[in-house]
Amino acid sequence: xxxxxxxxxxxxxxxxxxxxxxxxxxxxxxxxxxxxxxxxxxxxxxxxxxxxxxxxxxxxxxxxxxxxxxxxxxxxxxxxxxxxxxxxxxxxxxxxxxxxxxxxxxxxxxxxxxxxxxxxxxxxxxxxxxxxxxxxxxxxxxxxxxxxxxxxxxxxxxxxxxxxxxxxxxxxxxxxxxxxxxxxx
Amino acid sequence: xxxxxxxxxxxxxxxxxxxxxxxxxxxxxxxxxxxxxxxxxxxxxxxxxxxxxxxxxxxxxxxxxxxxxxxxxxxxxxxxxxxxxxxxxxxxxxxxxxxxxxxxxxxxxxxxxxxxxxxxxxxxxxxxxxxxxxxxxxxxxxxxxxxxxxxxxxxxxxxxxxxxxxxxxxxxxxxxxxxxxxxxxxxxxxxxxxxxxxxxxxxxxxxxxxxxxxxxxxxxxxxxxxxxxxxxxxxxxxxxxxxxxxxxxxxxxxxxxxxxxxxxxxxxxxxxxxxxxxxxxxxxxxxxxxxxxxxxxxxxxxxxxxxxxxxxxxxxxxxxxxxxxxxxxxxxxxxxxxx
Amino acid sequence: xxxxxxxxxxxxxxxxxxxxxxxxxxxxxxxxxxxxxxxxxxxxxxxxxxxxxxxxxxxxxxxxxxxxxxxxxxxxxxxxxxxxxxxxxxxxxxxxxxxxxxxxxxxxxxxxxxxxxxxxxxxxxxxxxxxxxxxxxxxxxxxxxxxxxxxxxxxxxxxxxxxxxxxxxxxxxxxxxxxxxxxxxxxxxxxxxxxxxxxxxxxxxxxxxxxxxxxxxxxxxxxxxxxxxxxxxxxxxxxxxxxxxxxxxxxxxxxxxxxxxxxxxxxxxxxxxxxxxxxxxxxxxxxxxxxxxxxxxxxxxxxxxxxxxxxxxxxxxxxxxxxxxxxxxxxxxxxxxxxxxxxxxxxxxxxxxxxxxxxxxxxxxxxxxxxxxxxxxxxxxxxxxxxxxxxxxxxxxxxxxxxxxxxxxxxxxxxxxxxxxxxxxxxxxxxxxxxxxxxxxxxxxxxxxxxxxxxxxxxxxxxxxxxxxxxxxxxxxxxxxxxxxxxxxxxxxxxxxxxxxxxxxxx
Lengths: 185, 339, 507
Prior knowledge:
The structure holds three protein chains of three kinds. Chain A is mainly α.
């Protein structure tokens, strides 16, 4: 009885030492957590999560201040990836922060624009070109679709246009394949 | 719009493949009947009936279409393999229970056809062997060795109600298998050549059993010709078993039986051509198949010689089934244009 | 015909060839249609730049859209007529999505622009390639890669072997076969020109052993030349460039490398014939041979002007005989359903098959994969399709990439031999395009991050600069004050001194 206990205690100590040693010896020096979280975030910089951008949100997640399901552009897939990285349970997107919308880009109605530069100041990725009293325009390829330029516009000349599929961006779909369906057909 | 190229296919269906496997078992079964009588046929019928009913119920519960999955024939293969693995005079509920276990715990708990981690027949066999060791090691004596050859009605009586027969009849009908016999006699310090003088030994393997093994070999060659199985698994298995047995036999001929005895006894041939060749639970890469077959053969030999059970195929196969994904990932073949 | 020195690749399949129906008649010229629709994207690379506007009169062979940059190809008017419109039309593409096209209304005069043959022996390579950029020639085997780009060789590269792909391994397709039978001379001439442009020592034509007539024709045409005609076994996909190179030379083109890196360049027979026509006759790429076969009444090969509506081609082949009215572009192994019978014939269209339930029955119910590995045995790239299927099906895309999904050539051999009727290739296509899309959005996210970081840094910098300016201003004010104080102290001292002096004077 005593012998068995001793053996078990000895084994526990030995294995503990091995584990502790390997934890120090084989420590993975990956990217710091913030950068790894930031790499998953979609970088729209829209602030819907309640933080002034993707990096601040990433920092907040790393510190444990923010939840993983506050990013609407990332959607459920993003939350899943974050859950996996953080080693926590997956949570569906928190709709308080908004819902996932199809990718859109902003479009300025150039006839209505008065050249106030307010949208230029709001754009987080400098995707709007223009100067005071000059018509502004959006570099569509750089626009993240964050919608931050919409509220400041005094004449409401900016609209969000969903990005349509064209022959270049077209993708093969997941094959429809289901034995039950095939049976009925 | 659908884009379903290639528009043409040319492949045997899963049903055809399984049907050919069943066909390939026929020579072995025929010889089985010749040696031991009709008992095995009853077991096969019982197993087939149980498997069809059980699987239909499970498919209905799982809300899957019944017809395509019953007609794929994979469940029948499992049932037949189990029926051929258990003693032909085991009571009827053994095969029924075994088949039930195969289909539920060997197949459908993992997701059904194509998803089973283990060989379903071996799962059922292993559970039976552990649960009912006495029944599962009481093998029938070949007909021509019995004092009064048992007629097939006796067999049916044994299978359906062993109590109806006097104990003497029962004992007269059954014995240990040659592998079992060698093991027990060796512990009594008998030299091997004396042991093998016993009437249950034939020319190479067990009397009668060697014939059945030849039947399986013939079926296996048919499967190979039909391209249902590749050469890797049977060749790796049989050659490793042969070579290992040869090594031990050369070192100590008094203790270790000849290599030919090993490949012609027990379930060696059934294992080589029908059990380890179950594609779902075996590796898929050519190299992987070789390691898999060789590993199982080694383990079979070790269990036969040093283990507690006379035959080790079921355990060896199950243990290596666990390793199949790992073997696959470690033996990826070289891709065209890669180093 | 004998097979000598052939290196066999792993796998491959041999489906029923179905080639005889469309080789009974010689190649016929299809009449000029009422309307020609020319897509601006008929090639790999940048969309061509439009050079005409609606209402313009064009002549046959006149360039109507110009190659935009290096990887692009020009488009020429296939006949003379009037530009009707430039608009979005449905294309022969698996997506069925519309794209920009130029529509020409032919005047049925078929007046050629002045043909300018190029004396390719006299001008240097750079000029020749420049000239070919104008030709509109792209790979006519179906890859539609701009041909001039394949002739452009870096200084540090040398090409030792030119391989002419005459394998035409897909069932049903016979356009190359008929071209070889009827215009073997053009092909051999084109091959010799191409060989000389590339500076290659050797030129090998690889042809499958089921095209005896073509082989004889090529052999005859190549009699007094150094062009070698080599026969390869009929085994799909021998016509895949990397597979053909291996068959002919035993060389495996390594992963992520092109055959050019090994000194080998591959051209299709129709492409070299087009090069010949452009350089020797001055005719740009305006038509091609198209096989129309399957359930149509009289399967045949036609020489068709680009932009001709498919319906015209169907009518020329006696019309359709199947109720389903479904048409496949390409062969039965790699082709796809056409979205409509009004799509135009393009440079990529080598074959159109009318589908019918008898020819191509509906797929059987899909059973689970039993890991039988028949697909792995059939895979010409030696991949493990069953593993790729597993990962693609469960959208474990990174895993699929790790198992070399992108080495897959989508030849369809795996699906062809699958006992469970699993549409494997469709899963690979899905996984590939999903991975590409994800990579693209990852790249876009990285750009957005950089731009955001730059902006934040800029704002920070501006803030700092402003603060500095303010501080400077404040400092200036302080200094002035200090100076003033100093001055006043001095003044006060002076005053005191003055007072003292005055007092002293008084005393």
